[in-house]
Design goal:
The chain has about 270 residues and is an alpha/beta fold. It has helices at about 1-15, 25-30, 40-45, 65-80, 95-100, 115-130, 145, 150-160, and strands spanning about 35, 50, 55-60, 85, 105-110, 135, 165-170, 185-195, 210-225, 245-250, 265. The strands form two sheets. Strands 3, 4, 5, 6, 7, 8, 9, 10 and 11 form a nine-stranded mixed β-sheet that branches. Strands 1-2 form a two-stranded antiparallel ribbon. The protein is globular.
Length: about 270
């Protein structure tokens, strides 16, 4: 079978010689560099975020999408990279992001109200260059509106970011980029952990409830076409369209003051 494939490939290359340069170049290009997401469990699953490629993160509310975005921004700004966040729903919380380690001085925050505004801003910033990490957050936009974005828009973004050092991340409630994305992760909520407390904060008697101790997210790797470098080799072994694997990470809650507890209490 492999001999037949090799023969067919050779015939196609010969037939297209002089008209199409390297017709199989996209599949066979050199291994792309990747950088950490900032979450060790996801790095172990996906191998990090690929440069020069489109990464799609999707899932329902409270599935960890914002946590992953903040972790990625914190990791990139810590390395001194300029980042851009296109916030289609105008829901980004800079105070929470700063608490997560994001250097806001290195982040361009573009606040939008519609999908069209977000896509135009993404196109402009990709064309201008200079950003190591660019995220398009469509999580607060109704899925039916995002579905109306033509597939050629995602294809254009993929081609624009290719062969550049930029990491392009798309976040949404559903998968929309389809095969245009080199890395696709689906996130889902994971059961939270609660602990009993005997403290009391007016007007809520916490002794009759539970305080949120940690929350988590389950991440599934749906597609990876990222060829990562292997020690002593110029290319990774194989890139696949679907990988069976998942990772679960938890965020530990830290309370500076008991006054913050009542909003995160589940009464019995």
């Amino acid at each position: 079978m492999s001999a037949n494939v090799a023969t067919l490939r050779s015939s196609i290359e010969s037939a297209l010689a002089g008209r199409v340069a390297a017709p199989f170049n996209y599949r066979d290009r050199n291994a792309v560099p990747t950088v950490p997401t900032g979450i060790a469990e996801i790095d172990a699953l996906a191998g990090g975020l690929p440069r020069g490629a489109l990464t799609e993160i999707f899932g329902p509310p409270c599935s960890g999408r914002a946590s992953l975005l903040s972790a990625a921004l914190a990791a990139r700004t810590a390395d001194g990279e300029a980042c851009a966040l296109i916030d289609a729903g105008d829901t980004f919380d800079p105070h929470s992001a700063e608490a997560a380690g994001v250097d806001l001085k290195k982040v361009l925050w573009v606040r939008c109200k519609t999908v069209d505004q977000a896509l135009r801003a993404a196109d402009l910033l990709l064309q201008s260059g200079g950003f190591g990490f660019l995220a398009v957050d469509l999580t607060e936009i109704a899925p039916r509106l995002v579905r109306q974005v033509p597939l050629d828009s995602w294809f254009r973004f993929r081609r624009t970011v290719e062969d550049t050092p930029t990491i392009l991340m798309l976040l949404g409630q559903e998968s929309n980029a389809k095969t245009c994305a080199s890395l696709v992760l689906r996130m889902e909520p994971h059961p939270a952990h609660w602990k009993k407390t005997s403290a009391s904060v007016n007007p809520v008697p916490l002794s009759v409830g539970l305080v949120l101790e940690s929350f988590g997210a389950r991440t599934e790797l749906l597609r990876s076409r990222v060829q990562r470098a292997v020690a002593g080799a110029g290319r990774a072994a194989v890139s696949v369209d679907r990988v069976a694997g998942e990772a679960v990470f938890h965020a530990q809650m830290k309370w500076d003051s008991p006054a913050a507890w009542p909003a995160l209490v589940r009464l019995k």
